[in-house]
Structure formats: structure tokens, C-alpha cells
Amino acid sequence: MIVHEENLYAITAESMGALFILSTVASAPMEDVTASSPNGLKWFQLFVMADRDWTESLIRRAENAGLAHYQEKPAATGTRSLSTNAGSVDAGLSWITQLLLILKGIVTAEDVQLAVQRGAAGIKVSNHGARTLDGLPATIDVLPEIIHAVDGHCEVYLDGGITHGSDIFKALALGARMVVAA
Known about the structure:
Helix content is 35%, strand content 18%. By secondary structure, the chain is of the alpha/beta class. It has two domains: 1-67; 74-182, Alpha-Beta Barrel (TIM Barrel), CATH 3.20.20. A seven-stranded parallel beta sheet has the order 1-2-3-4-5-6-7. α1 (5-16) packs parallel to α2 and α2 packs parallel to α3. The model is unreliable at 75-88 (pLDDT under 50). Its cofactor is FMN.
């Protein structure tokens, strides 16, 4: 077996009791990554493409490999809003899998409502570090609005904007269930 960096990250996360999220565009096959850390908590980050059969095959592979959740990453728009880009979030995937949907890229209360309507078990408050889009609010700044809008319907995770350890504690104190720090 070739050792890819994803395998090493998964092994390290397992040894620390931390979550590992495997990307659709990972260099290692998901089956190898899950085999390298059989007891670790691993999620799959799905990039939904136009080819529905390919998308479904990825989800099936994730299920068979033992990945616990999948997260759908909506295509970027200028405002990074699900409400203006609702077609990018594929509500139809819920019939394909029993994996729980974690929806990434939520930055508005309106997006929370759409995510809940689409059956999200969790949402990731994320602006992708504002690397891809200029002018987005900081995740920590929108977190209170998101927590309020969720109103207990799903879990909320903060992804991005972590520059110091104290940022993690602030996000947890504001109501995030988990903080993703990469």
C-alpha cells in the first residue's frame, strides 16, 4: 500500500481521538484511508458534480468504507448563500444514503432554514477562510445568528477563522458543538 498524506492524517487523528474529514479530491482512495485508521471518526466531504452516477458511486463507496457522515459543499457564488444558489444543494441525495448530511458553507439565517428543510443533521459555519470569495463575514461573527436560527434542529460546527486556541473556546462558548481547525 502506498502511504498517502491522508492516511497519515487519519492515523494521527485517530490516535488523538479527533475527527478526520476526507475530501472528494483526496489523493488516496477512501478505502485505504479508512483501513489505515479503522477506529477513527471519519467523515467524507462530497463535491456534488453534474454526473449523478459518479456522485452516487462516491456516496456508496463512502458508506462501504465506513465513513460516518458526508458533507455537501455548495458551489461558490458571489454572496456564498444557499438562498441564492439553492440548486447547488442536492436535497435529492437523501434517498441515496443513510449517511447523515452535514452542510458546509452556511453564513446566514436564511441558509440555516434551507439546510434544515433539506434534512441536514448538522451545518458547518464556513466561509472557506474567505480564500475564494472576498467580503465574507468572519465565521465567529455570524455564529450567534446561526445558533439562534438553528433553534436546536441540528448541530452547528464552526469551520474557519481559527487563529488562536482561544478562538476555539469562544466558538464553543457561543454554542458551536465542534470547531474544525486545520
